[in-house]
Amino acid sequence: MERERVKCLIIGSGPAGYTAAIYAGRANISPVLYEGLQPGGQLTTTTDIENFPGYPSGVSGTGMMEDFREQAVRFGADIRFGVATAADLSASPYRITIDGEKVIEAETVIIATGAEARYLGLPDEEKYAGMGVSACATCDGFFYRKKVVAVVGGGDTACEEAIYLAGLASKVYLIVRKPYLRASRIMQERVAHHENIEILFGHNAVGLFGEPGVSGVHLVKNAGQPDEERYDLPIDGFFLAIGHKPNSDIFKPYLDTDETGYIVTEPGTPRTKAPGVFAAGDVADPDYRQAITAAASGCKAAIEAERYLSECDYNRKAR
Ligand code: NDP
Predict the structure, then answer these.
(1) Residue 156 CA: distances (Å) to CA of 15, 114, 160
(2) In testing the pocket of ligand 1, which one of 242, 258, 282, 285 has its CB within 8 Å of the most ligand atoms?
(3) Contact 57/72 with Cβ under 8 angstroms?
(4) Which of 180, 211, 232, 271 has the smallest count of CB within 10 Å of its CB?
(5) How many domains are there within the chain?
């Protein structure tokens, strides 16, 4: 298999990966970045971004990621198509296989592979993507001011999203498949006492309807029970909040991950337990998952990579 040695390998092309590439490029450590399956990352699936500082009139997700990319290229980042398909982080140089056909031997690795929102798996979720279906209330909630929306899920994320949306929308339905919420007590209470939120316990969403965008959801109440009921609920927006899946599978044998698969780093830093391997952005962030926080952690990862390489150089010369 073809082999190539690099100083700094960045895997992923969301805000974390590109920001790492900008900083690593300016630090002269010749970053090579592989874009992954979805160049530009999750943001390219949102419409407008209005909460990233520096864009007072908002910007499209793809437009912003093109700006990030251009800035990284300007400082010499070598940006390539390709997906990391295997990893060996047992010893330095770390070996990352790209597309199953090439091995990159890297002195430092910045993992910025992101996370994917989980969806129910309904064909309608794809049909209405960007047309009423979203998995990020902070990103898209603004478009539903004074409208009616539904949030699916019963965990802390769903409650948070419901509360956020309730500040914008005229009505929020929280669709919960069980007869109770999984969320923390405080979130349960907030949701239960919010005048704009109605919790639909024991409900499953089985389809969406409307042309061209969503105008309602098909619901089943108490599925499989003698009192099973099917009905349609008019809504304008359908938000998924049933969890995220971090893209960390190939690194799991070598790094600490939490029960959901998020890479565990030293608190406040992107350092993983493998020296010279850093994790930035959503793959290591179960809490915030914002473009700005991902970008900040990408910056930290590049600074750490540069320091690590300098230390290795110094130690080599001192020997
Ligand atoms: P969780 O895994 O906690 O909850 C997922 C929710 O989605 C559950 O109610 C689950 O239902 C439901 N769900 C899963 N699959 C389906 C499906 N196919 N159909 C219908 N419903 C489904 O994920 P969260 O993202 O809410 O939270 C992840 C972690 O992050 C948690 O530890 C949480 O506490 C934490 N968090 C903390 C916050 C804070 O402290 N501010 C904010 C947000 C998250 P069921 O209960 O039936 O399994």
Answers:
(1) 25, 20, 6
(2) 242
(3) no
(4) 211
(5) 2
Q: Which of 240, 274, 299 is the last residue of a domain?
A: 240
The SS3 of residue 207 is strand
Alpha-carbon distance 27 to 21, whole Å? Answer: 10
Show the ligand 1 pocket: residues with CB < 6 angstroms.
120, 152-158, 160, 177-178, 182, 242-243, 286
pLDDT tens for the 319 residues of the chain, in order: 999 999 999 999 999 999 999 999 999 999 999 999 888 888 876 667 888 999 999 999 899 999 999 999 999 999 999 999 999 999 999 999 999 999 999 999 999 999 998 999 999 999 999 899 999 898 889 999 999 999 999 998 899 999 999 999 999 999 999 999 999 999 999 999 999 999 999 999 999 999 999 999 999 999 999 999 999 999 999 999 998 899 999 999 999 999 999 999 999 999 999 999 999 999 999 988 889 999 999 999 999 999 999 999 999 898 8
Closest CA to 145 of 165, 120, 159: 165
Can you give the residue range of the structural domain that contains 70? 2-116+244-318
The domain boundary, picked from 180, 205, 240, lies at 240
Cβ atoms of residues 170 and 147 within 8 Å: yes
Q: Are residues 85 and 6 in the same domain?
A: yes
Q: What is the CATH number of the domain that holds 42?
A: 3.50.50.60
Catalytic annotation on 140? Answer: yes
| Residues 141 and 40 placed together within one structural domain of the fold | no
139 is catalytic: yes
Q: Which atom of ligand 1 is nearest to the CA of 154?
A: 9
Question: Residues 314, 258: one domain?
Answer: yes
pTM: 0.77
